[in-house]
Design goal:
The complex is a heterodimer of chains A (347) and B (344). With 347 residues, chain A is α/β, with parallel strands linked by helices. Chain A folds into 2 domains: 2-196, Alpha-Beta Complex (DHBP synthase), CATH 3.90.870; 206-346, Rossmann fold (3-Layer(aba) Sandwich). Chain A has 11 helices and 18 strands. Chain A has helices at 11-23, 45-55, 72-75, 80-89, 123-132, 152-158, 161-166, 213-227, 248-257, 289-293, 319-325, and strands at 2-5, 28-30, 37-39, 65-66, 94-99, 114-118, 136-137, 139-140, 169-172, 183-186, 193-196, 206-210, 236-241, 272-275, 278-282, 306-310, 327-335, 341-346. In chain A, strands 12-18-17-13-16-15-14 form a 7-stranded mixed β-sheet. A 6-stranded mixed β-sheet of chain A has the order 7-4-6-5-10-11, with no helix packed on it. Chain A has a 5-stranded mixed β-sheet with strand order 1-9-2-3-8, with helices on one face. The longest helix of chain A is centred in the middle third of the chain and has 15 residues, at 213-227. The N and C termini of chain A lie far apart (46 Å). Chain B is α/β, with parallel strands linked by helices. Chain B has 11 helices and 10 strands. In chain B, strands 3-2-1-4-5 form a 5-stranded mixed β-sheet, with helices on both faces. A 5-stranded mixed β-sheet of chain B has the order 8-7-6-9-10, with helices on both faces. In chain B, strand 2 and strand 3 form a beta hairpin. The chains are: A alpha/beta (347), B alpha/beta (344). The A-B interface holds A 243-247, 249-250, 253, 263, 265-266, 268-275, 284-285, 287-288, 290-291, 294-296, 335, 338 and B 9-10, 43-45, 48-49, 85-90, 145-147, 165-170, 172-173, 177, 180-181, 186, 222, 225-230, 233, 340-341, 343.
Chain lengths: 347, 344
């Protein structure tokens, strides 16, 4: 059992080592968008057998696979309606269940012949699958029925020597963001059925942990995807609060990028910039409530528009107007340390 | 060619009357106020209420030229206006007024990009036609202000190519925000300059220089702002040495600007520079830039007068003059609309 620490400058080396071990039917503990996962070549019966003996998993219970948009059509049958849903929710923290084409080891499929597919929004998995060009298993690195792990230390503590011996490589990315396991969506049913409620809960306030500007952007994209409904008649209004330098503009950049707007810069100096129907405000320089009136915000509260307010706490005076005419999403960003941020979302 | 120029891109309501490269008058509302009514303090509300000020500023611009030149709306040749980039609602006011006057007095209309105004600010002359700078194309232009930080190759009149820009905060904004974090108020760029000077511009803390390792000419200052914030938080007692903090932060920003400019000189092979925008009012930056250009045996131009570093209509009028020479007038006045994120 070998351990490599994942750093920002050794991605290539880590991916290459991982692929070598995948090719020789090995087992790898690897970070993911949710918990530490146990990876092996999903098309190799020998590798999957090894995985199942590690997990102590009852037979007949399916194990999902990581893949990409190129591989997905080779692995499962997808009709037009399912295709539409997949495009909507992936990449993301979902496991999608579809009829298998039996290309992967049968041990991974359910008794009904379905397969769970994951295309996460997580760079390392994405690079790995793109280079390996085959699906890899996406099960969590815990024993069946035990809690999943966010750090290598807690994982190792729980393993027997026999289990440790089965692992060929551990890729240690430190403590992972405490995202919940993926939400399972069974697309083989006529109505979409949610098997396991993961991180995506539309009703309560959510807390995300971001470790980098890229992650902050991804979280913003995810949130926009969740709150944006095609039938929505009111404009979407993001009220973003948080100290200077916490990453408010980065968050707005993420929102913009998912709409194809890639040239967002800080609007502090000019108060706001508009990008077609996307309006990016920064109320930092607003000193008197009277000033808000000169910005003509009322005219922008139209269906289809998205308004983002940095230093949203200063919307005070027009808060009631925004509430009555728009759908409001409150975002609070906090420093955890120099790199990490907590992002709290409330609808 | 006599031009009435209007710039309402952000805070300032400014109107100028120019003739070729000469400025006959240039009025900036907040400065008028500064001298007259408010005794030094300009309420921020006044700055952004362009609609209520614009007529007054237009009248002031003509009054300043004086009767001897017989300058009035009837006998100017064209009207120029900033179309962007800037604050949408502010731009609208200037554009509306320009359209109204163009129609009423049957004048041709010229739309100008605020950034080309900043580039031409190095060639603006006073009413006597000084300074007499000749154009020696191509130039490498760097605009550094509260809202912009970008490299442009100025190839010939009205020929621009943007080769680098900020991906988040502008350099001036970073300086202003650092001052705010130090409790010096906002905007505090000038205060930072003064405090830094008191400790000989020492780079005591050596904050990170963002994007220097990247091969392109883009800037990013938000990371520097964050590390500064974190430094202050981790070292609460250090704030007693505000001058060293101010100096170190300013050096981090300027060092980044200088190193990137050096990279741009090497990449483009252009050693004639134009450095403009509000941050150029900083003497330390001017010196660093002069030293850099000396090393490459080039020439460096700054805005020809101090009032031209910030936002002003005079530079818009001068840029418009070159557009008029190429017959670049607005074809359909009714269709002219603001472009808040207009790049060159």
């Amino acid at each position: 059992m070998k351990t490599i620490k994942l750093k920002f400058n050794n991605i290539n080396q880590v991916i290459n080592n991982t692929i070598t071990i995948l090719k020789s039917n090995g087992l790898i503990v690897f970070p993911s968008d949710t918990v530490y996962g146990l990876l092996c070549d999903a098309e190799s019966g020998k590798a999957v057998q090894k995985l199942i003996s590690f997990k102590n998993r009852p037979p007949g219970k399916a194990i999902s696979v990581f893949c990409n948009f190129e591989l997905i059509n080779k692995l499962v049958k997808i009709n037009k309606q399912q295709q539409k849903i997949i495009k909507e929710i992936l990449p993301g923290p979902f496991t999608v269940i579809l009829p298998s084409k039996h290309r992967v080891s049968q041990l991974l499929e359910s008794e009904k012949g379905t397969l769970g597919i994951r295309i996460p929004m997580y760079r390392y998995i994405e690079i790995l699958v793109n280079r390996f060009k085959k699906p890899v298993t996406a099960t969590s690195a815990n024993i069946a029925g035990r809690p999943a792990h966010y750090s290598i230390n807690t994982l190792l503590k729980e393993l027997s020597d026999k289990q440790k011996a089965l692992i060929d490589l551990i890729v240690d990315a430190g403590t992972l963001a405490r995202n919940k396991p993926s939400t399972v969506i069974d697309l083989t049913q006529f109505d979409v059925k949610v098997l396991r409620q993961g991180d995506v809960d539309f009703s309560r306030s959510k807390i995300f942990l971001s470790k980098s500007t890229e992650e902050t952007k991804d979280i913003a994209k995810k949130i926009l995807k969740e709150v944006r409904q095609p039938a929505e008649k009111k404009p979407l209004i993001f009220i973003i609060e948080g100290e200077m330098g916490v990453g408010k503009t980065v968050f707005v950049k993420g929102l913009g990028e998912s709409l194809g707007i890639n040239n967002i810069i800080s609007p502090t100096f000019v108060i706001y910039y508009e990008y077609e129907n996307f309006y990016h405000f920064d109320l930092y320089r607003i000193e008197e409530k009277e000033e808000l009136k000169h910005l003509g915000i009322e005219k922008l509260l139209k269906m289809g528009n998205i308004l983002c307010f940095e230093w949203g706490e200063k919307t005070g005076e027009i808060g009631d107007l925004l509430k009555s005419r728009g759908k409001i999403i409150y975002i609070k960003m906090k420093y955890i340390n120099e790199k990490e941020r907590e992002i709290i979302v409330n609808e | 060619m006599k031009i009435l120029a209007i710039d309402t891109s952000c805070d300032e309501t400014s109107v100028a009357i120019t003739d070729g490269r000469r400025v006959l008058s240039n009025i900036i509302y907040s400065q008028v106020l500064l001298h007259k009514k408010w005794g030094g303090v300009v309420p921020s509300i006044a700055k952004r209420a362009h609609e209520e000020r614009i007529d007054f500023v237009v009248n002031e611009a003509f009054r300043k030229v004086g009767n001897k030149n017989f300058c009035s709306l009837q006998n100017i040749d064209a009207i120029a206006v900033t179309q962007g980039p800037g604050l949408a609602v502010a731009l609208e006011v200037g554009i509306k007024k320009a359209k109204e006057l163009a129609k009423k007095y049957q004048k041709k209309l010229i739309s100008v990009n605020h950034l080309e105004g900043h580039i031409y600010s190095a060639f603006v002359q006073n009413s006597q036609g000084n300074p007499k700078r000749n154009f020696k194309f191509p130039y490498l232009a760097l605009i550094i202000s509260g809202g912009h930080t970008e490299f442009i190759i100025f190839k010939g009149h009205l020929e621009y190519q943007v080769i680098g820009e900020t991906l988040d905060d502008a350099a001036g904004e970073a300086l202003d925000k650092a001052a705010k974090l130090l409790g010096l108020g906002y905007p505090g760029g000038p205060v930072l300059e003064r405090l830094a000077k008191e400790v000989g511009n020492e780079d005591f803390h050596h904050f990170p220089r963002p994007m220097l390792k990247s091969n392109n000419l883009n800037f990013s200052f938000s990371g520097l702002k964050t590390s500064f914030y974190y430094f202050l938080k981790k070292n609460p007692n250090q704030t007693s040495e505000v001058r060293l903090l101010a100096s170190s932060f300013q050096e981090a920003v300027f060092d980044t600007l200088i190193k990137k400019t050096e990279k741009a000189i090497k990449q483009t092979g252009i050693n004639n520079l134009i450095i403009s925008g509000g941050v150029v009012a900083n003497m330390r930056l001017k010196k660093l830039m002069r030293d850099l250009v000396k090393k490459y045996q080039g020439e460096i131009l700054f805005p020809s007068y101090k009032y031209l570093t910030g936002d002003n209509a005079a530079m818009i009028g001068v840029a418009a003059n070159f557009k008029a020479e190429k017959d670049l007038f607005v074809k359909n006045i009714d269709e002219l609309d603001r472009i808040p994120r207009w790049s060159l």
